[in-house]
Amino acid sequence: MDIFPGITSPSTQIPESNVLGDMRREAETNALRIIQAKLEKPENLEKLDQLRTAATQRKRTLDEQLRTAVQSQLESIKTGIAQLQISLDNMKTVERTMRETDDKLQKIAPLQSKLEDLRLEANTYRQLSLAQANLDYIIKTPENVKKADELMGQEKLLQAHQLIMEIENSRNYLLFELHKVQEKDSQPDDIQLVTNYFADYERLVAHLRQLIAFRIARWYDCAISAPEKLVTALRLIEREEQVDRFWMEKKELTEFSPPDRPRQWKKLCFELLRKSVKDRIEGNQLETREEHKYWLTRHLEMCRQIILRDFRIITKTCLRCFPKQYDIVNRFLDYYHNCLKEHLTEICDPKRRSEGDTLTTAEVYTIVTFVRDYQGAECLGHPDLKLDLSQLSPLLEKDILAAVTDVFINERKQKFTEWIPNIISSEVKDWYALKEVELTSEHYYATTMPRMLINMIIETLDMAKQMSDETCQLILGMILQKINEFRDLYVTEINNYAKRYFADRKTFKENFTKQMVANANNCESIPNFVLIVRKKYDRDDLDDLSRSSQQQLDRYENMGKKFERTAEYCCDIILQEIEMDTLKYVKILFTRDWFGSTAKQCCGTIIETTRDYWSSELTHLKKPLLAYLFYTWHKRILAHYLRNLFSRNTPIKFSAPAERRACADQLRRESSQLDKEFKSWDGTSADNATEYHFNILSNIADVLEQTDLDSIVLEIATLAKKYPSLNMDQVTQVLLLRGDLTKQEAKDKADAALSNMPRVNQGILFEIMEIVNQLN
Could you tell me which Pfam families the record lists for this protein (predicted)? Predict the structure, then answer.
């Protein structure tokens, strides 16, 4: 059944009965699935009535929604058909009206040629009417031009501008009327006639513009001496801006605009202000590098003074002269900052410099410190100015600043490369020139070398720290590397000096020991100086360093240890000299020349020789080094004793207890004597006294003196406990010295004493035997 008469529903390819049957079957299947799910459990049968009621209610609700949807669709279809019928009627009306209009236009077309003369007369009348209406303005124009010239000559710019505006209004009115005429009939000759007549107006505008530009360009002088002139110029600029806006709006409505609008004098004002700022910054460079060494320092200092002085005027006078919307303080801040940035970039950028024209260290230092202090209290950050500096970009970009800093670092590196050999060369020259070594206030021998080195380091680091903390860290790392190079070169020269001396000790005998003491003291003092440098200049918290605090500490400790070893090496050279002076005595320790009726006073001579050195040169050696020297010397003396004592070819063999007792007494006596003397020389206090090990001789004496062969194993065991590196061969050799034991008996007793005692290579005896191996 069709819903609307005359409208047939579209046919379908599938018969309706088949579709309904499929839908019915699908619905039944779904219903059975739902019922099966809900009645799956036996207890759900009790809810059968409730389920049937809910299903009936849901079916009723769906039927109601379906009927409502069908009814809504039918209403929409009725409305659409009605609108289509209305559109059809309107189209027929439009077609009929267009046909009627076309018929009327065909009848009017011949009238155009008949009314041509009338059109021309109407145009002439319009022009004459326009000229008559503006006759007063046209007549007054020459007079106003003359008055405006006179007023500008008297610097009465406001009155002159008023007359110029009257002339402009007359011209613009005429041009506008001609523009309206042009819309229907083009008359370019009329426009040219008006333009020629008002030619003096353009000259007046150009002159006024020149006077205003002059005042704006000299804003600083005007703000100080005649702020009213600056205010007048700014008032005229604002008036011109209002006229520009008027004609821009007028052009949107009428498509007409005067030929010289917009003038944009406000934009010109800002350009002039920026140019004046640029001239003030660049114009104070009165010198070049060739004319003065510190040209850049003087130039940037002048810039700082000018900026500070100018902003005092800007924040006080200019702030009152310029309109509020100009935001003149921040605008000037932007101009000064960007112009200075461009100027410094031009100075620093290597791409803009000629080949070979590089910045010097002094110039780099000047630039970087200026950049650092630029926003400080001596410049833009002055408390009286109260400027907002938060939006300012860096005065130098990172890449340019890095390039400038690299110049400083490379130059300092080169300087250190030159200075270090020069310092050492000067020092070495004094060695060979037999120059008298100076005493410090603490009565230690020393030279000026450490002070020269540390002064050079501090001077460089002070400059670097003034530039930035990052630069200071980079320079510090370079300096530490150069100090290590210095130490290596210094050691080489000390070696050469010692070789020449020991090759011919008469050459500079009087000065060698003093100089070597001074060298040792120098090396001992340098780590202390470097520690001061570390506390003052080093920072462990900078991300740029890419090393931990422990690594930072290690590099100083390692360098300090190197110089300590160098100082000890100087002490070893001194000991070599002492040993050479006592060589014929230390070599015969624990030999027949040392013991017996014809024995030499070896120990006494060693002590006296050492005392001579101590009383003359070594008393001026710093106490830590003095303690090291005597401790090392005491081990070397013991090494000479033990070398002969433990030797299988020892020249001493005792034949009687009395002889062994005499030797033991001599060992104890010399042990006590050496211990006493050494403790009096090393400069240590009683609370911090150095422990010397001359008692090794006394302990060995106890073994030699022992008369009870059964108790000798106990003596050896006691000796082995004190010296854990004491081995079988050494004990055997000591027992064989007695002369009352065979080799096998000595080995058996040594084995009995050491069998339950593990031996380790450590302790004072092991250290002494290392020296013995070197002597052998």
Answer: Sec6
